[in-house]
Amino acid sequence: xxxxxxKVAAHHKKKKYFKLAKGYWGARSKVWTIVRDxxxxxxxxxxxxxxxxxxxxxxxxxxRINAAARLNGTTYSRLMHKLHVNNITINxxxxxxxxxxxxxxxxxxxxxVG
Length: 114
Known about the structure:
The chain is mostly helical. 75% of the residues lie in helices and 0% in strands.
């Protein structure tokens, strides 16, 4: 009795992997066993870095807020503490945007919290 394989499903699976490997260099986009390994590794990096991106952006926002706060005579930690004490809830993303694009509004926020 011949061995039963599901050629259609296997072909679709390989086709999906080769599509994901488009643009890879050399055998990474042409040889099935290598394609499989590199696509899976790439997907692992993508999963990990979607989370790392959030860390990176939060760090960038903090740097921008700190720079703008120092121009207005305070520091990041003092500013955030005073915002918390005065029950002003502006998240870091919005605060960094205000600091970058509307420095006079940021100065008014700093002045308001004292």
